[in-house]
Amino acid sequence: MDSPSLDQTLQEGKLFRHVNSLIVAHLRDNNLTQAASAVASATMTPLNVEAPPNKLLELVAKGLTAEKFETTSNSIYDLGAAVSGPLARSAAVDFSVQDMKGPSKSFPKHETRHLSEHKNIARCARFSPDGRFVATGSADTSIKLFEVAKIKQMLLPDAKEGPVRPVIRTFYDHTQPINDLDFHPQGSILVSGAKDQTIKFFDISKANAKRAYTVIQDTHNVRSMSFHPSGDFLLAGTDHPIPHLYDINTFKCFLPANIPDIGIKGALNQIRYSCTGGMYVTASKDGAIRLWDGITANCVRSINGAHGTTEVTSANFTKDQRFVLSCGKDSTIKLWEVSSGRLVKQYLGATHTQLRCQAIFNDTEEFVLSIDELTNEIVIWDAMTTEQVAKWPSNHGGAPRWLEHSQVEPAFVSCGTDRSIRYWKEVV
């Protein structure tokens, strides 16, 4: 075998240095200072090396997308459809920029369509990671699974009265209202959590499956769930004040070791992993937002009284994991810096004091969406300027209970107390 040329050796050395720089910068910028120092020392990379924010995540995401494209024919999500899911748009906002000046962006016009109705309140929704499916859960204990490609067919002008039926599965296996749903990040698995204290696993690749193939029996009302990005672990937020962490291979439950030190009192309204699984966040009925180490399961920061004396109804990480967007029953939406717990931005002008309302980003994180319970409107803010840029009639017979945005394209769903589900898509 020929020995590598000098040019090849130099190029490989340059590539290694570039990779090492990105790793050090990524660890440092995500407040993993000890790990960043260790890698910097081992690779002789300056700890203060400069790199664009989230460059490593961006490159990894592109690589995974390319790999996924190459293996689309073997996708575990393939239910017989020939169409692959849309490619995710990258986040377009850097919230570390302070005192953003200039005009707010206009939120693009959307078209909306009634998709289906449950027999009782539509309580929650979740898109699959590839954007090909969306599932909804109801107080009637059922779960509906929609295929997004069929929803888009419904929106075509010549198909408005056509025979397209976007519901491809309906699951019946809970005995009490469903609170939350999540899709396995790499598999054809949908999980649901309900007031009947169970977490149920459904195989969406099986056309005739109506019931769960596996059940986790928890000890409390399961209010929220989130899969680890690896798919090996599942977080459950329940009426118990401590997150329940399940190994889905053994179904063993783990609790954090520092429970006595953090004074938690309230049930968990929402729990969500960061995109790498390095952290997770909980929104609590005791009014606190808490950040947890994804490795040790210990609470590393508690933002008490995040929404005054009211409960926190939702909390989600930004894509770069550096900030958390929260919603509370004090009718405010807030953006918090993870590293310091500092309040960065507030989004005001919508009333939500009764329902477990969600505050969500659109897929590029340029806008924040939530609900005004009094006016029955969907409210949109420019994420950077915090200016309210749109208020749209929800078209529900009563305020929507839940909003969920696709991770990969400009589309979202709303779930109503009127039992209905609506799909919203940007007009091109």
CATH-scheme architecture of the largest domain: 7 Propeller
The structural class is: mainly beta
- Indicate the radius of gyration in whole angstroms: 22 Å
Determine the CATH topology of the largest domain.
Answer: Methylamine Dehydrogenase, Chain H
Helix content: 10-25%
CATH homologous superfamily descriptor of the largest domain = YVTN repeat-like/Quinoprotein amine dehydrogenase
Q: Which of globular, elongated, flat, extended, rod-shaped describes the shape?
A: globular
* Estimated share of beta-strand residues: 35-45%
| Biggest sheet statistics | 4 strands, antiparallel
Give the SSE map.
Blueprint lengths: L5 H24 L3 H11 L11 H16 L39 E8 L4 E6 L5 E6 L3 E6 H8 L11 E6 L5 E6 L5 E6 L3 E6 L10 E4 L4 E6 L5 E6 L5 E4 L5 E2 L13 E6 L5 E6 L4 E5 L5 E5 L8 E6 L5 E6 L4 E5 L5 E5 L12 E2 L5 E6 L4 E6 L5 E6 L6 E6 L5 E6 L3 E7 L2
Antiparallel strand pairs: 1-28, 2-3, 3-4, 4-5, 6-7, 7-8, 8-9, 10-11, 11-12, 12-13, 14-15, 15-16, 16-17, 18-19, 19-20, 20-21, 22-23, 23-24, 24-25, 26-27, 27-28
Helix pairs in contact: 1-2
GO molecular function: RNA binding
InterPro entries: CstF1-like (IPR044633), WD40/YVTN_repeat-like_dom_sf (IPR015943), WD40_PAC1 (IPR020472), WD40_repeat_CS (IPR019775), WD40_repeat_dom_sf (IPR036322), WD40_rpt (IPR001680)
Subcellular location: Nucleus
What structural keywords apply?
single chain; 428 residues; mainly beta; Methylamine Dehydrogenase, Chain H; 2 domains; four-stranded antiparallel β-sheet; 14% helix; globular
